[in-house]
Structure prediction request, 667 residues.
Amino acid sequence: MIHFLLKRVGHSIFVLLAVAFLSFLIFQFVGDPVASMVGQDTTTVERERLRSELGLDRPILIQFADFVARTVSGDLGVSYRDGHRVSELIAQRLPATLELAAVAAMFALGIGIPMGIYCGIHPDSSLSRAFQAISLLGVSLPPFVIGIMLIFLFGVTWRLLPTFGRGEVVDLGFWQTGLLTSSGLKSLIMPALTLGLFQMTLIMRLVRAGMIEVLGTDFIKFARARGLGNLQIYFRHGLKNTLVPVITVVGLQLGSLIAFSIIVETVFQWPGLGLLFIRSVQFSDIPVMSAYLLFVGVVFVTINLVVDMLYLAVDPRLRTMS
Amino acid sequence: MLSILGSNRKGTGNHRVSAADTLLEVRDLRVSFATRHGPLPAIDGVSMSIGAGEIIGVVGESGAGKSLTGSAIIGLLDPPGYIAGGEILLDGKRIDHLTPKQMRHVRGRHISMVFQDPLTSLDPLFSVGDQISETIRAHLPLSKQQARDRAVALLDAVGVPAAGERIDHYPHQFSGGMRQRVVIALALCTEPRLIIADEPTTALDVSVQAQIITLLKNMREERGTAVMLVTHDMGVIAEAADRVVVMYAGRIVETGPVAQVVHDAHHPYTRGLMGAIPTIGDDVDRLTQIDGSMPRLSERTGACAFCPRCPKAMDVCRQFQPPLVQVGDTQVACFLFGGEPEASQ
Prediction:
């Protein structure tokens, strides 16, 4: 068990190093930093002096080790655009993205799982067919279309909800939350819906397929023969057995909610990390881009680690194997 | 249709079961599958009775309707199958038209079932103790601790070594034979009076098969649990059953005490089945086989379903279905032994 966890953590560190190497390479490939720092009439000698002052003349592996050391200590460099520390920029934007992703995930899980269970138990009912049809929309419509449609209906036509921004936020010192004000909550509805709709339909379809498969197994038939009630059969035995594949996909999807909310943040001008990243791309703000890449890597690796632990909690077969 | 209540002499037991001891009675059971072209009859007028503490073997090849009969009795026919007619009585009370909730209290409490494959019968995510306890607590007002104690005792009774420790193990930690023991413990945990064992040994090693059969026989001796043993293995039947019911294409073709049917079968089909069992010492190059195959559901006609494969088929066999007639201790559905032609459908 502990051996398994240690192995997993080891893997994660390796993956993170690989990601760090990629984000380190961005600096190497996107132009010569010295050239962008000095004027046109700087002499070659001065350029070389600057290069050695910045440590850019050292072997690439040493530079990478230096980069990793700085990153681990929280120093992500300085934004080229406005000179702010990148770590501060990220800390400032993180709450907006995390709150959006959390609400979208709750929406996706809270609606998607019950719908999937219902459709799995009654695959032929007309309500299931309706859910299936709706889910097809959710899977096939791209988020920017859904976002713009929602803005058009609720923001422009009926004027019920704000069309951009986070509304008022409350500063908790370390965290700026929009969850405590009514304008903040209102602003959250449409982006969260847009971001979560795809995940919700995906989860629904996954749970539905899993339930149908599990409910057809011998052990469910045997559970019926043992005289267990429907609740026990559907939830205790049925749902738990569908959880392993669901956890896998939900984990990865939650990662994408946080990491790739770029489109939704752009559509709704949500002041989160996605928007920060898009801006940094526009300005070739390499330290920010590189830090964002690292951040996405950390999110996915962490979620995968959690997913692996959840497997262990759910499936005893994996516990004895390790 | 005649009842076969009269033929209740036991083959291996040394006591007789009287009609008053009848535990389960199936009268003229018909099971059909709903299809787009109307109902497709799969079981066509099966009647049998099982006495308290009796082991009755139901044999026949795949598709004869033996498992279907078991599923119909316990109320677990998979759609589109449904009971199209007849009655199923437990202790003289009909159980074939109970509500799902009422039927749930019969299932597992009074009648339980053991399936073919012990590897897939248990939920892999719960310990065997959990699964036994939840079954006990679904039917009996016991506390968690009481249910657990009972589960340990049961595992011990079905021959799982170190039951007190094994109870917290998960199904994948048991071998196939041990898992079937666990499944039988689950089937026994509320002391039902009838276990329907649907091919309980088919998926197991031969050496383990004998252990499981012995276990079922012991349970009958110790607890008086009747067993309906569904199998295609005449060897298992000969070993364990008191009486045997031979099914073919959804009907009973022969039924009687096991010794009688095994050693002196009447129906050509039963004779064919017996001929298919190789005996050690016999020097045979080829095993006897019954040529041809059982008609598919959609190909069944009003004639005797076996006549295309029957070496002794007569004209009457091609027009009418033979009723069960009494021949000595057994009943046979074959015109060779008389019986008035009975038009069917």
